[in-house]
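Illustration 12: Major facilitator superfamily (MFS) profile domain-containing protein.
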Amino acid sequence: MDSFLGKFFPSVIDGRKSAKVNAYCKYDNQWLTAFTSSLWIAGTLSSLVASRVTRRVGRQAIMLIGGVLFLSGSIINAAAVNITMLIIGRLLLGFGVGFTLQSAPLYLSETAPARWRGAFTSAYNAFVVIGVLSATVTNYFTNRIPEWGWRVSLGLAAVPGAVIVLGALFVSDTPISLVMRGQHDRARAALQRIRGHGADVDAEFKDIIRAVDMARQNDDGAFRRLFSKKYRHCLAIGAAIPVFYEFTGMVVIAVFSPVLFRTVGFSSQKAILGSVINSMTNLASTLLSSVVMDRTGRRFLFVVGGLGMMLCELTSLHDCNRNHNYRKVAISWIMADHLGKHGGVTMPRSYATGVLVLICMCTFSFGLSWAPLRWVVPSEIYPVEVRSAGQAMSISITLCISFVELQVFLKLLCAMKFSLFLFYAAWLLAMTVFVVLLLPETKGVPLEAMQSVWARHWYWRRFAEDAKQEVLHVNDDL
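Figure caption equivalent — predicted structure in C-alpha cell form:
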C-alpha cells in the first residue's frame, strides 16, 4: 500500500517513480526486507524453544501461548508510529507463529485416525491458505482507505490470534502428550472423546502407552539422539522436505504476483484482485489435496506437483522462444512477474495473460502437493521419543531459510536479474527425483507402526534394522 510505504519506507516510493532505477531494484530496501523477514527468524528461535516446552506442558498450552503472542504482535503493528514498533510487533508475530507451527500439526497428527491422518494434518495448510486469501481480500478493501488503511489491515491480524486463544481453551490435549506427562486417565478419556463414545479404544490406547514407554527409555537428549545413526533415515527426510519446499520458488509468486497484474495494465486495486484469484486457486488445490491425499498417497502427489510446476516453466520457455522480442523478459514464467517492459516494448496482453494462466497452474500444482505435504510428512515420520524435536527441526529449517531468502532475495534479484530463477528450476528437478527414490509411502500407517515403513524401503531399511537391533539390546539389558 502506498500509504504504508509512504509513512515508513518513502525511499521505495521515490525509487519506484524514478525512471533511472532498474525495474529489478525498485523494492531493494533493507529495512523493508527486515520488516518482512524478522517474523521468520523469530519463528525459527521460538520453534526450537517450543519443542522442549511442549514435552512438559503439552500441545494445547503451546497453542495457547502462541495465540497470545500473535495477538500482542498484531496490536503493536496496528499502533506502530515508527519502524522499531513495526519490527517489534513483527517479532512477536514470529514468536507466535513458531509456537503454533510446532504444536498444531503435531496435535492434528496425534489425534487423527490413521486412515485419515493426511486429510486432518493437511487441513492445517488449508487454513493457512484461507488466512492468506483473507489477508489479500482485506488488503483489497483497506487499500481504498487513504492514510490509515494499512493500520486496519495489520490490526485485523488480531482476529485469527483471538480465535487461536479461544480455540485452545476449549480443546483437550492429545492422548500421547497426556500419557507422556503421566496423566493416563485423562489420556484415555481424551482418546475416547476423540474417537467417539461407542468406539473401542483399548488396543489404540495400549499402543500409545507402549510407544511412550519406549520413548521414556531415552527421554533426555532428544535433539542429540535425532542426529544419531538410529534416526538418520527420519532426519534425512525431515530435513529434506522443508529445504525442498523453500526452493520450489513459490515465495516469488507470493511476493511478486501483484506486480504481474500491473504489467497487464491493471490498476493497483485490480492487481490486488489478481492476487485474490491466485489465492483462491491455491485454496481450491489445497482442499482437493486434503480429499485425495489418503487415497492416492503422499509420493504420488509430490511427483505430480513437482512435474506440474516444471511443465509450467517449460511451456513458458517454449512460448518465449517463439517470441524473440520477449525472450529475455521471461526466460521462465516466474521472471515475468516483475517486468512488464523490456527495452521500451510493452508485453502484449495475450502473452501476459498466458503467463497469468501459467502462474495459476503452477500455484494449483503447488497447493496440491508441496504446500500441504510439507506439514503432513514431517509430523508422521518420527518416533514418539524424538517427534517434538524432529518437528521443531523441520519447522526451524523452513523458517530459517525463509528468513535468509526474504532478506537477500531483493538484493540478489537486483544483482542477478532473471538468471536467479533458473536456480529454482534445477531444485524442482532435484526434489522430484529425491521423492521418487528416497521418500517412503506413509499413507494409512499408524504412527506407532511407522518403523515398518522404513524397514520395507530399499535404502532406508539398513538404518531401520540397526535401530531395531539397538532396541532389542536395550530390552535385553533391562
